[in-house]
TrEMBL record, chain A:
Residues 6-236 form the ABC transporter domain. It holds the Pfam family ABC_tran. GO terms for molecular function: ATP binding; ATP hydrolysis activity; transmembrane transporter activity. The keyword Nucleotide-binding applies. This is ABC transporter ATP-binding protein. The lineage of its organism: Bacteria, Bacillati, Actinomycetota, Actinomycetes, Kitasatosporales. One of its GO terms (cellular component) is ATP-binding cassette (ABC) transporter complex. Keywords: ATP-binding, Nucleotide-binding, Transport. SUPFAM superfamilies: MOP-like, P-loop containing nucleoside triphosphate hydrolases.
TrEMBL record, chain B:
The lineage of its organism: Bacteria, Bacillati, Actinomycetota, Actinomycetes, Kitasatosporales. This is Spermidine/putrescine ABC transporter permease. CDD domains: TM_PBP2 (cd06261). The keyword Lyase does not apply. It comes from the Bacteria. The chain crosses the membrane at residues 28-54, 89-109, 121-144, 164-184, 215-236, 264-284. One of its GO terms (cellular component) is plasma membrane. The keyword Chaperone does not apply. It comes from Streptomyces sulfonofaciens. It holds the Pfam family BPD_transp_1. Keywords: Cell membrane, Membrane, Transmembrane, Transmembrane helix, Transport. GO terms for biological process: transmembrane transport.
C-alpha cells in the first residue's frame, strides 16, 4: 500500500509546562481535503506548524510521503503554507511574492513569470501582478497567498484559518473556490478552522481537536450524525443532549443521547404517543427565535431536560412564531436519529 | 460646593469654546514651541547664512558688513577646504557604515532572539553609555588608543599594534559614541517584523541567509536609514573627538572652530557645508521611506 501523504505518530508538543499537543496519531492520504476542527487553543494550529516544520515535536514523528521529516527544517519539506495573516512580503509586488519560491529554486526568469501568471489566473487575479499587497483587498490578498503556496506545486498544502479574516459573503465564495482549486490540483489540503460549518462543507475527512487531543476522525457525515462523545456532539452542530432521568423517561434507556435539532418536528398541542418508528416528548416552549429561513424552538421537556428544534418556515411567518412562546407542544423524531454517545473511558 | 460647581462650569464653557474654535486650540497648543523654533533654530540659521556673506578686516579681524560671496567661492577654490569637506563626509559615512554593520546583529539579538522579558533590560543596557559624559568617554578612548596603551598591549601577541591617534581612531571612537542611535531604530524595526513573514520565507524554501537578504534586510532598511541620519549628522558635526584622538586630522568642525575668532564669516560659510550635506542626505534617505521610521 502507498504511504500516506502525511503521517503523525504519537506526536506531542509541549511549550514549557503547557502541553499543546498530547500524543496525536493522524494519517492524511493523497489528494484528501482534511480539516482540523476545534476551539482556539485546542492544538490544531500547533499540529499544522509541526507538519510545516516551524515547530519540532517534543516526542513522536512526522512523516511526509513515508519519509521521516521530524528533524527537517521548513525549507527541506515539500509542503507550503497559507498563513492566517497571509504573510505576504510587503516590499515585493504580487508577482514577486508568487515567484519567490521559484526564484529560490533558480527557475529561469521566463518560466518563473509564466508560472506566476498561471497561478494568478488560477486564483482569478490576472492583471494584478505588478501591484503591492497593500493595494489589495483582504480577499485578493488571500488569493495571492494561495497562488504563492500553489505555484511551487507542493505535495501538501497547509491552510491556517485562511478564511477567518474575510466577511461572510466572501468566505462562502472562497470556500467554493478553494474546493474547486483542490479538485483541480489534486493535492492534499490540510485545513485548520474553528468554524464547524466550514469544515463540514469542505472536507473529505475531519479531525475534531480538544485540549491537545483528537476526539474523533471521520467524514463530515460521521462526525455530524455519529458524534463519538459529548464534546464532538456539542462542538459540531447545536448541543442537544438527553442524559440521566430525562434520557430514561424519553428514550427509555439510561446513557447520554444526542438528537440533531433539524430532525425534531414541533407539533401543536400534546404529541401522539411513541410508535415503533418515532419517539415523542411533550414540553413547553421556553424560547422561539425567528431566523428567516428557519425558526429555532427551545423546549423544556416535561420529562426534564431541554431540546432545541429547528423548523423550516414553510408556512409560518414571524408573527405566528411569536405566539408559540410559553405554548404546550409535542416533539417527535425518528428513533434512528437518537444517537447514543459512548460514555467516556 | 457652589464655588467648585461654578469653577467646573467655567472650565466646561472654556472647553466648549475651544472645541468650537479649532484654530485657536491649535495656536494655543503650538504657540510657545513655534516661537522657540522660529527664533532659536531658524533665526540662528538665518544669521549663519547672512554672516557667511560678510567679510573681515584682515588687520583687525573685525567683521565688516559688506556683502560678498567671497567666502563661498573660497570653499570651492581652496583645495584645503575641499579636501577637509570630503574627508569629513568620508569619516561620517565610514562611521555610519560601521554602526550599521555592528548594530544589526546586536539588534537582531535584542529584538528577536533574546527572551521577550529580557529585551527591555537589554535596551537599557545599550543606552547606558549615553549616561556617561561625552568627554570622559573620549578621554577613556584616548587612553585605550595611546602608544603602549591597553589596545597595543592586547594586540601585541598577534604582532600588530593599534591604529594610534589619527583618522582611524576618530572613526572608531565616533562609531562607539553614536552606536546606540543606530541600534535603537534597527531594534524597533526588527521587533515590528512579523514572525509569519520569516516562517513564510522558510516555508517557500529559503534558507536563513536567503531570508535575511530577501525579507529581513529590505524590510529593516528604512530603520537603518533612520539610524544613519543620527550617526551621519552627529559625526559630521563633531570636532572634539577629532581633537582628542584624531592626531593631526582636521575635519570641518575643526576648521570652523579655528576660524571663529579670526574670520567669523569664513567660519560661518564653512558651517553651512554640513548643513547642506545633511539636507542632501535627508533627501536621499527620504526616498528610502525612512521618514516613517524616524
Amino acid at each position: 500500500m502507498e504511504a500516506a501523504a502525511i503521517r503523525l505518530r504519537d506526536v506531542t508538543k509541549a511549550f514549557g509546562r503547557f502541553t499543546a499537543v498530547a500524543g496525536i496519531d493522524l494519517e492524511m492520504s493523497d489528494g484528501e481535503f482534511f480539516s482540523m476542527l476545534g476551539p482556539s487553543g485546542s492544538g490544531k494550529t500547533t499540529v499544522l506548524r509541526l507538519i510545516a516544520g516551524f515547530e519540532t515535536p517534543t516526542a513522536g514523528a512526522v512523516e511526509l510521503a513515508g519519509r521521516d521529516v521530524t528533524r527537517l527544517a521548513p525549507f527541506e519539506r515539500d509542503v507550503h503554507t497559507v498563513f492566517q495573516d497571509y504573510a505576504l512580503f510587503p516590499h515585493m509586488t504580487v508577482e514577486q511574492n508568487i515567484a519567490y519560491s521559484l526564484k529560490i529554486r533558480r527557475v529561469p526568469r521566463p518560466e518563473r513569470l509564466r508560472r506566476a501568471g498561471e497561478a494568478l489566473e488560477q486564483v482569478r487575479l490576472t492583471g494584478y501582478g505588478k501591484r503591492r499587497p497593500a493595494q489589495l483587498s483582504g480577499g485578493q490578498r488571500q488569493r495571492v497567498a494561495l497562488a504563492r503556496a500553489l505555484v511551487g506545486r507542493p505535495k501538501v498544502l497547509l491552510l491556517d484559518e485562511p478564511l477567518g479574516a474575510l466577511d461572510l459573503k466572501l468566505r462562502e465564495q472562497m470556500q467554493t473556490e478553494l474546493k474547486q482549486i483542490q479538485r483541480d490540483v489534486g493535492i492534499t489540503f490540510v485545513f485548520v478552522t474553528h468554524d464547524q460549518e466550514e469544515a463540514l462543507t469542505l472536507s473529505d475527512r475531519i479531525a475534531v481537536f480538544h485540549r491537545g487531543r483528537v476526539e474523533q476522525v471521520g467524514t463530515p457525515a460521521q462526525i455530524y450524525e455519529r458524534p463519538a462523545n459529548t464534546f464532538v456532539a456539542g462542538f459540531v452542530g447545536t448541543s442537544n443532549l438527553l442524559t440521566g432521568e430525562a434520557a430514561e423517561r424519553v428514550v427509555g434507556a439510561s446513557g447520554t443521547y444526542s438528537i440533531r435539532p433539524e430532525k425534531i418536528r414541533v407539533l401543536d398541542g400534546a404529541a401522539a404517543g411513541d410508535d415503533p418508528e418515532h419517539t415523542t416528548a411533550a414540553g413547553t416552549v421556553a424560547d422561539v427565535l425567528y431566523l428567516g429561513d428557519v425558526t429555532r424552538f427551545v423546549v423544556d421537556l416535561d420529562a426534564g431536560g431541554r431540546l432545541t428544534a429547528l423548523q423550516q418556515n414553510l408556512e409560518t411567518s414571524s408573527e405566528d412564531v411569536a405566539a408559540y412562546r410559553g405554548a404546550r407542544v409535542g416533539l417527535r423524531w425518528r428513533r434512528r436519529h437518537t444517537v447514543r454517545i459512548p460514555d467516556p473511558g | 460646593m457652589t464655588s467648585t460647581g461654578q469653577a467646573a462650569g467655567s472650565v466646561r464653557r472654556l472647553a466648549g469654546a475651544l472645541h468650537r474654535r479649532p484654530r485657536l486650540r491649535l495656536s494655543l497648543l503650538l504657540g510657545a514651541p513655534l516661537l522657540w523654533l522660529v527664533v532659536a533654530y531658524l533665526g540662528s540659521l538665518a544669521v549663519l547664512f547672512l554672516s557667511a556673506l560678510w567679510t573681515t578686516d584682515s588687520f583687525t579681524s573685525e567683521v565688516v558688513k559688506v556683502w560678498s560671496a567671497e567666502n563661498f567661492s573660497a570653499l570651492v577654490s581652496e583645495p584645503l577646504y575641499r579636501q577637509v569637506a570630503l574627508r569629513s563626509i568620508g569619516v561620517a559615512l565610514a562611521v555610519t557604515a560601521l554602526c550599521a554593520v555592528i548594530a544589526f546583529p546586536v539588534a537582531f539579538y535584542t529584538a528577536r532572539v533574546a527572551h521577550p522579558r529580557r529585551r527591555p533590560l537589554l535596551v537599557v543596557a545599550i543606552l547606558t553609555p549615553l549616561w556617561a559624559s561625552y568627554l570622559v568617554k573620549v578621554y577613556a578612548w584616548r587612553l585605550i588608543l595611546s602608544a603602549q596603551g591597553p589596545l597595543d598591549w592586547v594586540l601585541a601577541p598577534f604582532g600588530v599594534s593599534g591604529p594610534g591617534y589619527g583618522r582611524a581612531a576618530t572613526v572608531i571612537v565616533l562609531t562607539y559614541l553614536w552606536l546606540p542611535y543606530m541600534i535603537l531604530p534597527v531594534h524597533a524595526g526588527l521587533e515590528r517584523l512579523p514572525e509569519s513573514l520569516l516562517d513564510a520565507s522558510a516555508d517557500l524554501g529559503a534558507r536563513s541567509w536567503r531570508t535575511f537578504r530577501s525579507v529581513v534586510l529590505p524590510m529593516v532598511l528604512p530603520s537603518v536609514a533612520a539610524g544613519s541620519v543620527f550617526t551621519f549628522s552627529l559625526s559630521l558635526g563633531d570636532y572634539i573627538t577629532v581633537q582628542i584622538v584624531g592626531g593631526k586630522t582636521q575635519l570641518i568642525g575643526n576648521l570652523v572652530y579655528s576660524n571663529v575668532t579670526l574670520n567669523l564669516p569664513l567660519a560661518a560659510a564653512l558651517g553651512t557645508v554640513p548643513v547642506v550635506v545633511i539636507v542632501l542626505y535627508l533627501l536621499a534617505v527620504r526616498r528610502s521611506g525612512a521618514s516613517s521610521s524616524l
